[in-house]
């Protein structure tokens, strides 16, 4: 099972399932995203530690608009415990990378939320139901 509530941002999925959804971002300066710009999708546990992080190129859909297709695979959640997590996406223009290839900053970094406030959004991992 994999569901995303477009109104609240709640992601619900069973441990070990797969799913995908699109997140659209818009630059506030009226310039189109370039092939170098990225969307960073991050999932954190209750202690705030990163448990999943994916970096996606932003496809140029139209002037000032980029779309990232977030894909979660079964091996992303296989080792995670069922329970509550939070997620966010950051749109990074002209990203700066550290020596390990992680994005650490950029010329513009925006973290939009469903409500436009940039807050962390809910994610719930459910236990896999055993076959009876």
What keyword list fits this structure?
single chain; 132 residues; mainly beta; Immunoglobulin-like; 7-stranded mixed sheet; 3-stranded antiparallel sheet
Report on this model:
- The mean pLDDT is 80.
- Strands 1, 2, 4, 5, 8, 9 and 10 form a 7-stranded mixed sheet that branches. Strands 3-7-6 form a 3-stranded antiparallel sheet.
- It contains 1 helix and 10 strands, in the order βββββββαβββ.
- A hairpin with a 5-residue loop joins β4 and β5.
- With 132 residues, the chain is mainly β.
Oligomer: single chain
Low-confidence stretches: none
Number of helices: 1
Roughly how much helix do the residues carry, as a percent range?
under 10%
From the coordinates shown, what is the CATH architecture?
Sandwich
Instruction: Count every beta strand, where a strand is a DSSP E run of 2 or more residues.
Output: 10
State the end-to-end CA separation: 18 Å
What general outline do the C-alpha atoms trace? globular
What share of residues are in beta strands? over 45%
- In the CATH hierarchy, the third-tier topology is known as Immunoglobulin-like
Overall mean confidence score, pLDDT = 80
Instruction: Let me know the largest β-sheet.
Output: 7 strands, mixed
Work out the radius of gyration.
Answer: 15 Å
CATH class: Mainly Beta
SSE pattern? EEEEEEEHEEE
What count of domains describes the coordinates? 1
**Class by helix and strand content?**
mainly beta
